[in-house]
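Running co-folding for iron/sulfur cluster.
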Amino acid sequence: MHHVNLTAAADAKFQERLAKASGQDVKQCYQCGKCTAGCPIAYAMDEPPNRIMRMLQLGLKDEVLDSKAIWLCSTCATCTTRCPKNIDVAGVMDSLRVMAKQEGRTRALRSIDLFNDIFLGSVRKYGRVHEFGVGMGHNLRMGKLLKDVDIGTGLMTKGRMKLFPSKIKGQGEIARIFNEVYKLEEAE
Ligand code: SF4
Ligand code: SF4
């Protein structure tokens, strides 16, 4: 956890955008900490979920969008199910990732952002993830071609990972869903 400048001016526009995008009222958070207590990734985050919520109440846009926490969140939704104020904390984290990406603020954890893009690209193209393609694509883009190659080889030898991709039957429908979501994002 690092020092946060609590005297920075609140960014009201950011707060409004987040409320609209997530459909959540973060002002309802009363800092009970149950989200953080249940979060399996909190130990690795620079700011745990309850602090992210407090920073949002204070309108600290830069601190939140530049945090690693929003990229480390695995969307497991434990926080959401635990929140006594019924705030969809996982949904808020998701909206924050989208906003950070729209503003090109992905330096905090470039590797995760890249993995996210390649993973979604694979699902859009094949209707499911082609693990080998995702792994190799990520390694290539990160300049680490041989990373985890031993694990990949082991999985392929046991038939748990396929060298070539194949499309599922409803791939066209999946691609259509992606296209509709992208259109909605562009219209925002
Ligand atoms: S959704 Fe994210 S913030 Fe919430 S408990 Fe899971 S990892 Fe933590
Ligand atoms: S569980 Fe809900 S009310 Fe409690 S700190 Fe987290 S977001 Fe706030």
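Result summary
The domain at 12-102 is CATH 1.10.1060.10 (Fumarate Reductase Iron-sulfur Protein; Chain B, domain 2).
The longest helix spans residues 110-126.
Job closed.
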